[in-house]
């Protein structure tokens, strides 16, 4: 475990060291590219200025992600249990992902105002699709031999779904959850660019307009940190709920 975490940590430290050295060696102005030490100092000194922005983004992200997960799982189950509906709706789901969020977001503001609803809708739109696709694939890839065996044993459709197909799709579902967890932060920041009063997206916009590049990088680092934390939470849940599944080291 320590060896696995040592390599990415070493890469990050090396990148920050090269960044700091280059900034000092070439005397790059802070408004163009601030050094990591200056960014870290700004993050500590300005904590009171952006703390409420960070908390607002965290609350919005988690709310949208939870709703997106619920909708994504529900749609995946519906599409699996209703093949005709899947044939009709699945292409529409794919087409919905071809619409750029940055274009759709202003329309949602026009339709639903500047409240929290359009912001949640943006996060939901970017979150539910990876979960739905991953879970549908997991449900459809259930072993036909096992399904046939359970039918021979007298199992009902409900029992086949709950005892075989759903557990088989959980690993694929977590693959979609990991993608959605990172997308949710991006969706929250994009939604905050469109008329929000609080949030990391608002803080980033204000910092950019005042040429406070160090504050822009503070916002970027917190966005990355939030993505990593959500990814880690999903990873821990996966390990806890899938204890029965052999790890890659054990299977190799």
Polypeptide structure, described:
The chain has helices at 2-25, 36-45, 47-81, 83-96, 101-112, 116-140, 144-152, 157-192, 200-209, 213-241, 248-251. The chain has a single domain, classed as MetI-like fold, CATH 1.10.3720. Helix 3 (47-81) crosses helix 6 and helix 9 packs antiparallel against helix 10. The chain contains eleven helices and no strands. The protein has 252 residues and is an all-alpha fold. The protein starts with a helix and ends with a helix. The model is unreliable at 248-252 (pLDDT under 50).
List keywords for this structure.
single chain; 252 residues; mainly alpha; MetI-like fold; 11 helices; 0% strand; disordered C terminus
């Amino acid at each position: 475990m320590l060896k696995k975490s040592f390599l990415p940590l070493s890469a990050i430290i090396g990148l920050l060291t090269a960044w700091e050295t280059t900034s000092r060696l070439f005397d790059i102005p802070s408004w163009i590219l601030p050094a990591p030490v200056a960014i870290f100092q700004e993050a500590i000194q300005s904590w009171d200025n952006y703390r409420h922005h960070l908390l607002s983004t965290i609350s919005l992200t988690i709310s949208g992600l939870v709703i997106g997960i619920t909708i994504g799982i529900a749609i995946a189950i519906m599409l699996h249990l209703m093949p005709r509906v899947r044939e009709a709706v699945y292409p529409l789901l794919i087409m919905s992902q071809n619409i750029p969020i940055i274009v759709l977001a202003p329309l949602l503001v026009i339709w639903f105002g500047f409240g929290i609803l359009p912001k949640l809708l943006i996060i939901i739109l970017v979150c539910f699709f990876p979960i739905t696709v991953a879970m549908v694939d997991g449900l459809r890839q259930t072993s036909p031999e096992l399904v046939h065996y359970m039918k021979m044993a007298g199992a009902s459709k409900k029992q086949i779904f709950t005892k075989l197909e759903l557990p088989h799709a959980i690993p694929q579902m977590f693959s979609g959850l990991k993608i959605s967890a990172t997308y949710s932060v991006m969706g929250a920041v994009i939604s905050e660019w469109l008329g929000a009063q609080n949030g990391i997206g608002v803080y980033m916009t204000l910092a950019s307009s005042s040429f406070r590049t160090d504050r822009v990088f503070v916002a970027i680092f917190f966005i990355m940190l939030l993505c990593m934390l959500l990814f880690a939470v999903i990873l821990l849940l996966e390990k806890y709920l899938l204890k029965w599944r052999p790890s890659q080291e054990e299977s190799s």
